[in-house]
Amino acid sequence: xxxxxxxxxTFDPVHLGHLIPAQYALEHxxxxxxxxxxxxxxVHRPLHVPASPxxxxxMCRLAAAAIPHFEASDIExxxxxxxxxxxxxxxxxxxxxxxxxxxxxxxxxxxxxLHTWHExxxxxxxxxxxxxxxxxxGEPDASALESLLGPAAVRDILARWVPSPRIPVSATDIxxxxxxxxxxxxxxxxxVAAYIAxxxxxx
Length: 203
Known about the structure:
single chain, alpha/beta, Rossmann fold, five-stranded parallel β-sheet, 5 strands, 14% strand, globular
């Protein structure tokens, strides 16, 4: 029985604030593989995707190549319709061996919004949701999700809280630094920094 972690996002660009918690999740949850899944047309952030899906997928592949058991998937980058998480999970459920346990890794800053995700009940059926620590203000409120899924389901989700440090790095800040001519060394993998410079992304 394989354990597969799915970490989706815009990854614009992918950075250590994504990769370090994901590494902790790999170990804490006993994952065999962790898939980075860049979205083509993110439903929750439709107005701000400066880099193309192809560029973001390439950066994820460069980042994953340096970390054992990490991979990047193009399943969402190939889509022309909005990237609903439930569609991605249904795809992996169909294509992975029977009995595979799928873990959906979600940043804690998204916890108060999970109840608004398209077909969240179906998502909770297809995957075991695990929470990655992210810098955010205050304690995330899961009361709306509890009203929708029930207390037991939310307790299970919170029990899969990954004991990772909160890495205070954001893609917004990285893009700002690039526009201002500042270094992004140490904030993204070296291969990603080189790709951004080569393609003149975010300038």
